[in-house]
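ENTRY TYPE: paired fold submission
RECORD: A
CONTENT: sequence, then structure tokens
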Amino acid sequence: MVRRESDMGQPQSQSQSAFIGQGSELRDLVRELPWHETSLGAIDEWPASLKTTVSIVMNSQQPMFLFWGPELIQIYNDAYRPSFGEGKHPAALGQPAKLFWQEVWDVIEPMFDAVRAGDSTVLHENQLIPVWRNGRVEDCYWTYTYNAVYDETGTVAGVLAIVTETTGSVVSERRQSILSWLSVKLRRCTSREAVFQLLQRTAALHPVDLPGILVTDHAETAAPSLTLTANELGLDVKLELTFILNPTVPFEGYRAFLSDITSRVGTVLLEAEAEQARALAVADRDQLLMNAPVGTAVLIGEDLVYELANPLYLEMIDRDDIVGKSFDEVFPELIDQPIRATFQDAFRSGNSYSDNELNVQIYRGGELRNCYYEFNLTPLRHHGGGIYGLMVVVIEITEQVLARKETELLNEELQVASRSKDEFLAMLGHELRNPLSPIVNGIQLIEQKHDELPAEYQMIKRQVNHLVRLVDDLLDISRITRGLVELRFEQVRLPEVVERAVEMSKDLFERKGHRLSLDVPEISLVCDPARIAQVLSNLLTNAARYTQAAGNVRLSAQVKAEEVHIAVEDSGIGISPKLLPLIFDLFVQGKRSTDRAEGGLGLGLALVKNLVSLHGGRVSGESEGEGKGSIFRVVLPLKPGMPDETTSATSHQIITKATLHGRILLVDDNRDAVDSLAELLSMKGFNVKAVYHPYEALDVFSQGDFDVAILDIGLPGMDGYELMARLRHMKPGTSCRFIALSGYGQDKDKARSLSSGFSHHVVKPVLTEDLLAILRLSH
């Protein structure tokens, strides 16, 4: 039958086609089709049996297909339409079945013949009937019945197919069965070879979904294929599988199915490699423990059965042949002692236990003795986290403990000496700060009074600043050991900072024979030169360490948009793409040892990032991959903003206002220090009265009004705390602000000053910029 497109526009009257229904494009197509050109004839000539059946089909929610007349002319409903896919609708409407279903006619024709011959209706479940759709022949599965439709004469005039496509569920169940079978078999595989053999067997057993699996890297095939890796599925294991694709199976869910296979295989390989690594680690551990210079043992299971005990351990407990025996069998005398409960609790809870002086009573030499041990107990865990045993490390310290008990008085004297040392350090710092104060003040006065300064002056200033920092470090050891950073901002030439960094790292460069090239223009910036030198030294050291002997390292700098860009480039071993995003994290070295056999990057780069961030800058690392060198870039502002309070309680501030006003009372018994500081403050516009004795201060304070009183704490005859209390008592409600001045700068000293009523505690030697910042707050 041939239908012309121009004939499609002959609508039937609503009364004649009411049985078709309303509300869908397909119903409109059925109504408008030129049926008079088909063997069915015009709609108004259709028999009641055909109209009734079409009405049932068109208004049903169940997918239905009606074949009518000798040519089996096709009519279908909206519910069936999705099963066509792309390409067959609406051409199928009104077509003879044999003409339209050529690809499966040999399958369905016998079914039509059987129904028209009067055979009983048969339910076909999940029947494979390939269908041409979406531009290809697809394997489709159907559950359907072919039902005879009789006309008014009692003759079979048509076949009604009630159809449900089950392709999705059939394929899903089939693939799930494959996955379940594969998972069971994979549990028995202990090597990569066994896994790959199983994959080939799986493909041979299930050729419909798995026509072939190639397990070699970068496999090539002319057939349609899909390559998947374990890495892209989030598994850190080497695995690349190339699946030959069956073009007749549904594409929906195909990739997910193949990804699932890859994931399961990758997981098994990962576990197998982890188990192999664990076995090697256990063997290495046991060898290490047996040769350890301390007593070691391994106990397994809840009964704590000895699996290993090295010679030193056996010697310490004065026993032989304990492997294979439980803790209670080896130490019956410890059953009622606390140490036994400690062992049991460590195994059950998974908590480690250590004791620097464990006292137990065990049999040695045939008698019960008090013995002392430095003792560590560590739970041993399976790969999955479960506890399977305990590792014991002991060092006998019986002789040392007994000796210590005999020398407790000497230890007390040592403690007294230690306290004296701390007091001496504090006193030493105080005594060093006092003469430093007038020196620092004098340097600042020279700068204020002279425009041109000789080179010798710059040398003296550098050495005095270095001495100030040494004194600060001497009195602030706890802050240094806790990692707190105190930035000292100053304007400095970048070449000087680079020279200092090169000097700090030159030994390693000389030892490895590297060539270092510098391209650093004459740039000045505001920074902490010691900390930036430390940053650059760390980068240079890293470059030297991870570059093979006689390599090349280059440090360059340039200014861009009020920032200095510094680059350290090397020809070294490079950084893997996986490790690159983590290089500035703390402790990344231990976690990434397999990525970088040279030892990783460790803590140094984390310190670099921290120091650069405190300067308001940023740092980054680049590498094209392993063996291709690295570039580290540091970007610093030429003039950073005011440092955060969290950077340091005494960080130097960049003063933008040069002149302030107000009356200041300055009290210190060190005449050089107080006179030089008074002159400095006077040059800044303050009205300063300097006195050298607390009683003189009381007299001066009573006769005038002061905005600020700066009091030395270590005054003769009356300390600064008492002097401040008397001054406040003398003028209750005074608006004067009191600032403590002291050579003592420990936390406890600052806390005492603040709790006594001082608004600030300034440590000698006083830097003018710091004091001006405080005076501005007071003002």
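RECORD: B
CONTENT: sequence, then structure tokens
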Amino acid sequence: MEETVFNYENIEVSIQEGYAEVVLSREKSLNSLNTETHKELLHCLATLEGMREGVRALILTGRGRAFCAGQDLEEVKPDPNGRQIRVGDLVRSNYVPLMQKVKDLQIPTVCAVNGVAAGAGASLALACDVIIAAKSARFLQAFSKIGLTPDSGGTWLLPRLVGRARALDQFFTAEAVDSSRAFELGMVSRVVEDERLTEESRTVARQLAKGPTMAYIATRRAVDLGYSMSFSDSLIMESLLQDHLGESYDYREGVAAFLEKRPARFEGR
């Protein structure tokens, strides 16, 4: 049974079966991000992260026909008669803390991309650990259409997934990438029929919520840092992570379950 645990204006939050589901709900504006939505998301993520025993995985999705259209341009449109909002200031105050929080969240994240993911919305999706796209989903690097460079971590995330040439192609042309092509390029983990997206993402979240949380987060860290490390340094980093995980309850439980030929009962500690 789902239980709504927070009251927000721009997002909906529920917790069930050990995972949380966060839904961007500014449907009329294609779930675009304004300053208030940033504040709500940061508060929500920090709160959920602190509920270690009750929340061990997170689903992020959108309401309606879009996942997230990126920045709400109504909030930043140039005013010929007033003080202009500095775009860089907005990125530093809103997007930097939000994207850093999503990327470093101490529980695994599942993004259910239910429609268009444009600009910062695409980055928000790509920052998650498991990315499940509905067949109708599209990814759009829309920054060049308004004379800007990608932000929100886009220049870090996309090239690592698709390579430099294909990333620059998307950044320069701002052409939409459909779900099938996104899967071919390695941008998403899997593609499902639209009507199966919710259940597929919840199935994955349930599985992750029952898993070894600390091991998931250490694995994410190893993969992300490994991009900038030599092979030798990666070997050492892996050994140090094993030092830490080898002292965890979940390691002891996993070994015991294997030897006793029973399913492991991980607790995320």
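NOTES ON RECORD B: The longest helix spans residues 87-104. The radius of gyration is 19 Å.
STATUS: closed
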